[in-house]
Amino acid sequence: INAEYGGKFCMANQAVKRRAKENLATIAKLQQFELGFLIPFILYKIIWSWSYLSFFNFIRIILLGIANWWCYSNLKSYATPKNDPNGNLLSGGEDMNQKGLIEYHWDVLYITWFLMISTMISDWFWLAFLVIPIFALYKIWVEILGPYLEARKEQQKIMESGGTLKSRRQQKKEERGNVKTVRVRGTR
Fold this sequence. Notes:
Blueprint: H1 8-48, H2 55-79, E1 82-83, E2 89-91, H3 101-118, H4 131-160, H5 168-176
Antiparallel strand pairs: 1-2
């Protein structure tokens, strides 16, 4: 195989193997942290403060558990290396430091871990759980709804002024005055 691709396959495969090794280490750390936060939280909430457990606290614990499990399982599936049926490594998994969805999963996981520890001190820390939907609404507004509504306003202004919607290319052509330069061959 190396002779066919001039050794490039070996180099690319090394990067995949390195990513797989890093991701397996990340999964191991993630499992350790998860158990390190989850076991004390469950022991405290069930054994120590069982008599103080109200219906609303129980619902909050369930919501926290769902958010934590969802982010943990998604991060684990993103990081898991993929093999073909023969056992050859196809993909080392996703880059666990990339921006976007993976970064948001890490953020939510950190918030749930913080809540597991802090709610053992006071129930007022449950208010920090509101950071997740507030941030989600902010991102939806800034990246989706805001630009969409702004574009609609511009379209309405153009239509109200009697103009038509033109592409930037059409606008540049009109600004230049559609002047074309013609070059005649053979004459100087």
